[in-house]
Amino acid sequence: MVHLDQLQASGSRPHIMIPYKYADHEFASKLTAALRRDRITPWIDDVDMSAGAMLMSRIANAVRPVDCVVPAISAVSVASRWVQHELRAVMTRSFSGRRVRVLPAMIDASALPDFLASLPYFDFHRSGWNVAYDDLIVAVQQHVGPRPPKPAQPGFRLPRPTRLT
Asked: Rounded to two decimals, what is the model's pTM?
């Protein structure tokens, strides 16, 4: 089995799983496209997590190790006991001797569930897409190390506003 440090040395891309409820498919698709453009390999879980898809099993049996799980957190997903159960399990288990980092993406005005309260989260609803996405990319980089250079894609994202001090 190849370890994460060997994957990074070989120029391999970080691998992120995006579990979501079907109602949040639009956000998950947009995030997937943005990550691909930024040379990060997303694994969008097209199976509605409430339908009995075992997130733990999917991570453990992945062809390539999963570095981070970025669940789309919304009123719909917070209300699902199944989603809560699966995310709790991922947070407390290691896979092949290493932890998978959970980085919640808040996509509406719902409250973050208590069991996720101690984690950094990325508020796409209140902070806006650009700010939350940029912060998420920084967190992924910190977890997996440097990534390959990003190809120029003019016009994809709006630049962050410059603050005058």
From this structure: 0.72
Parallel/antiparallel/unpaired status of strands 101-102 and 68-69: parallel
Domain for residue 4, yes or no? Answer: no
Alpha carbon of 141 to those of 13, 38, 85, 129, 148: distances in Å?
A: 11, 12, 27, 18, 10
Is 34 a member of any domain?
no
Give the model confidence (pLDDT) of 89-101 as tens digits. 777 665 666 678 8
Which helix (H) or strand (E) is 127 found in, with range? none
In a domain, 86, yes or no: yes
What's the domain count of the chain?
Answer: 1
Q: What is the pLDDT of residues 49-70, one digit of tens each?
A: 544 456 656 665 555 677 888 9
Nearest to 49 by CA among 23, 68, 75, 31: 23
CATH of the domain at 127: 3.40.50.10140
Name every residue whose Cβ is closer than 8 Å to that of residue 104 and which is 6 or more positions away in sequence: 70, 71, 73, 112, 116, 119, 121, 122
In a domain, 9, yes or no: no
